[in-house]
């Protein structure tokens, strides 16, 4: 072991005096080796920290002089940071700062803070490292108090958080994010207003704050920045504070760039624009919310706010659209109130009275704001409608034109009914012909209730792919022109496996498309190597994209050589009960057994493109030997 290694080992064992003897020997000889310089520097740094805590150290000036004489690499950032921190020790408050840091390390936070406060009261401290140490002590003390007894220590923790803002700490930084996380803990318990705190904090997230996290049980959690933005926006909107709203507006816009699939950030941005009176700016995001939450009445109520002050007819249509949704009646009370007021203003008294009666019937609370309406002459002399469903349907169509006006009508076919096991909700498959492919989408009973659609029937739909590349259907209508199953895509495929036990066949179209068909789905007897023509749509499952086959028939067409090819006169190599040709084509066990193949036999036949799931690579599998 050379001397630099010995110094490092003694330092690690906290035998600093023994290590210092070796440092003196090395320095007396004169040193240029980088590792010897590092060893001496780290030993001297530790000794200076130790000696600086003593009231009067005779050794301290010598140690500082020795450290200064070393030719330390300026590119060594870690060592340089330590040297910068040591400079503060030469200042009047240096030893106090070091003592405070040591106290905090031993969890004596209140004593450490007392020292930091005295230093900052007596001196103008411009060393950011001391500000950071002070900040970490505030955070650690606050976290410890909050963990110990939130109710008892809440005011103390709030004072510590407020004290943090007097410091010049690094931003963004781990400390700065930790301070916000502590504030979030208080806000969750209703002990802190997070929106004004966040404005003081300054939207200074680290890159890691934008990343999702996992715990030891592999549970995934939203990125910290995402959760904070939602909390802050919700509170700012409720407070209706213009300064807070203007601040959160830009934060939400940046957040949406990072979290484009978070519909709630778009919702809060829309609400923020509306609160600031910027209705046209809100419209785009309201429409995004309506598309994502089309079955939720509150989403259409949000869009109504865009038009309420300047286009009563469109606002009325939005409320009608909202009331067509199958939500609980209690969730529709405010929407019915808004609609009732509009109906009264337009003289549509029977419709207005129905809304008022429905509110009174379904509300647990006294609706004091409706009492003046019920005392008016029109109310007393009007017979209410039995329901407003037809009225809603007539007016809601206007909203569809606005929300979906930029989407083209696409050809589609009606699929079959299915039930989601967890929720027992009934859904229907719709096969939609998009620019790229025919895709399988699902719709609710509510969406097709007026269609009387039969399996395979021509339909037209408006929809689009969402952020997860799932096709969402917004509008469905009858298609006058067209034939049964005319929206399906046609593919040429090769049967690469027949499972008689499970009574299914597997086929492949190319590297991106394959699927399974049960025997009962076709009247034709199919065997491996057969070429088939299928009419199908793409669907997505946990294992990836596959094809849902609706029609299948044999084909005389020749598939691409990229999928199926003939090989001639290839030598056989054996490996247990399987084999390979000299070109690397895999020969499955049943073919090896059927043809009694042995090493160096020569075969010809058909091979199909095949994916080896264990090796995660594409290759070729022999289907037939001729």
TrEMBL record:
Pfam families: DUF7017, S1CSD-TOTE-1, S1CSD-TOTE-2. InterPro entries: ARM-type_fold (IPR016024), DUF7017 (IPR054283), S1CSD-TOTE-1 (IPR054426), S1CSD-TOTE-2 (IPR054427), TPR-like_helical_dom_sf (IPR011990). Residues 485-549, 572-625 form the TOTE conflict systems S1/CSD-like domain. Coiled coil: none annotated. SUPFAM superfamilies: ARM repeat, TPR-like. This is Tetratricopeptide repeat protein. The lineage of its organism: Bacteria, Pseudomonadati, Pseudomonadota, Gammaproteobacteria, Moraxellales.
């Amino acid at each position: 072991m050379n001397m630099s290694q010995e110094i490092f080992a003694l330092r690690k064992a906290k035998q600093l005096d023994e290590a210092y003897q070796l440092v003196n020997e090395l320095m007396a000889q004169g040193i240029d080796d980088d590792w010897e310089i590092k060893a001496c520097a780290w030993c001297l740094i530790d000794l200076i920290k130790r000696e600086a805590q003593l009231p009067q150290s005779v050794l301290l000036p010598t140690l500082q002089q020795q450290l200064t004489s070393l030719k330390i690499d300026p590119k060594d950032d870690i060592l340089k940071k330590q040297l910068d921190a040591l400079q503060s020790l030469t200042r009047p408050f240096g030893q106090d700062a070091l003592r405070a840091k040591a106290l905090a390390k031993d969890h004596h936070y209140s004593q450490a803070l007392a020292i930091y406060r005295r230093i900052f009261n007596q001196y103008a401290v411009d060393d950011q490292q001391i500000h950071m140490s002070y900040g970490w002590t505030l955070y650690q003390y606050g976290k410890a108090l909050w963990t110990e007894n939130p109710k008892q220590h809440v005011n103390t923790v709030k004072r510590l958080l407020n004290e943090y803002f007097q410091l010049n700490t690094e931003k963004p930084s781990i400390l700065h994010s930790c301070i916000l996380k502590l504030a979030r803990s208080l806000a969750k318990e209703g002990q802190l207003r997070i929106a004004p705190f966040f404005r003081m904090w300054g939207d200074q997230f680290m890159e890691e704050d934008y990343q999702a996290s996992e715990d030891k049980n592999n549970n995934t959690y939203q990125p910290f920045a995402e959760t904070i933005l939602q909390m802050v926006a919700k509170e700012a909107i409720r407070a209706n504070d213009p300064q807070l709203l203007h601040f959160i507006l830009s934060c939400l816009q940046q957040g949406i760039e990072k979290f484009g699939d978070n519909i709630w950030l778009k919702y809060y941005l829309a609400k923020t624009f509306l609160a600031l009176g910027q209705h046209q700016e809100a419209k785009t995001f309201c429409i995004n919310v309506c598309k994502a939450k089309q079955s939720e009445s509150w989403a259409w109520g949000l869009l109504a706010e865009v038009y309420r002050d300047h286009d009563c007819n469109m606002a009325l249509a939005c409320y009608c659209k909202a009331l067509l949704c199958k939500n609980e009646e209690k969730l529709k009370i405010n929407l019915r109130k808004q609609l009732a007021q509009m109906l009264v203003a337009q003289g549509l008294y029977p419709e207005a009275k129905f809304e008022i009666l429905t509110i009174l019937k379904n509300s647990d609370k006294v609706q004091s704001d409706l009492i003046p309406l019920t005392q008016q002459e029109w109310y007393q002399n009007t017979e209410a409608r039995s329901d407003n469903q037809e009225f809603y349907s007539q007016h809601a169509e206007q909203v569809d034109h606005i929300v979906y006006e930029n989407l083209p009508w696409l050809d589609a076919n009606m699929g079959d009914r299915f039930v989601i096991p967890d929720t027992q909700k009934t859904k229907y498959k719709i096969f939609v012909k998009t620019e790229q492919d025919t895709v399988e989408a699902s719709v609710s009973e509510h969406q097709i209730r007026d269609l009387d659609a039969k399996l395979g029937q021509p339909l037209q739909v408006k929809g689009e792919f969402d952020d997860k590349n799932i096709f969402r259907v917004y509008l469905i209508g009858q298609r006058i022109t067209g034939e049964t199953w005319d929206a399906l895509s046609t593919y040429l495929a090769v049967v690469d496996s027949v499972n008689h036990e499970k009574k299914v066949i597997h086929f492949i179209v190319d590297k991106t498309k394959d699927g399974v068909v049960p025997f009962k789905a076709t009247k034709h007897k199919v065997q491996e190597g057969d070429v088939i023509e299928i009419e199908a749509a793409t669907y997505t499952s946990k294992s990836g994209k596959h094809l849902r086959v609706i029609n299948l028939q044999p084909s005389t067409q020749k598939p691409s050589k990229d999928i199926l090819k003939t090989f001639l006169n290839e030598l056989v190599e054996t490996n247990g009960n399987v084999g390979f040709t000299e070109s690397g084509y895999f020969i499955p066990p049943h073919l090896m057994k059927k043809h009694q193949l042995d090493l160096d036999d020569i075969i010809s036949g058909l091979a199909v493109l095949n994916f080896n799931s264990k090796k995660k690579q594409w290759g070729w599998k022999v289907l037939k030997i001729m």
